[in-house]
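Entry 12.
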Amino acid sequence: MNNDIEKVLYTQEQIDQRIDELAATLSAKYHDEFPVIVPVMTGAMMFASELMKRLNFKLNIDYVDVSSYEDSSESSGKVRLLRDLSHDVSGRPVLMIEDIIDTGHTLEFLNKLFASRGAKSVEICSLLDKPERREAPVKIDYLGFTVPNEFIVGYGLDYNGLYRNLPYVGVLKRSVYEK
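Predicted 3D structure (tokens):
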């Protein structure tokens, strides 16, 4: 797998340090609230798991799964809800945890969904942001790192279900995904 990586953008140590910082900020913000933490899709699970272990407040964890890629490396822009929350978010703060924000369509869809269900607030914490690809307006409340407009894998991010288990964030070689 490592041979398929063009370059490492963020090491495991850099990611761990940034997660510590994000967790401290979130713990100060939510110390007296009872939010629903919502990792978005499979990719966010590694980041969400590491982040939630460091949070020092009461919370519920729920999970949504949505699709906008339809087995492609490019977003279709059409978001489908594949798995919905099991918790009622009415009157509660919702903190969505995302691995990477690129077009913004998924988070725009979920933000509207949770707001329509009466969430007290909806905030976004993302490990990565790829602003060059933004098509939908999305406010990122808590951000790990900004990445270039490259095909990024590792630390939960994948290409065809592979590379999620890399302990770092890297750029996938073009030769791998342009076959």
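Annotation: The mean pLDDT is 93. The chain has one domain: 2-66+76-174.
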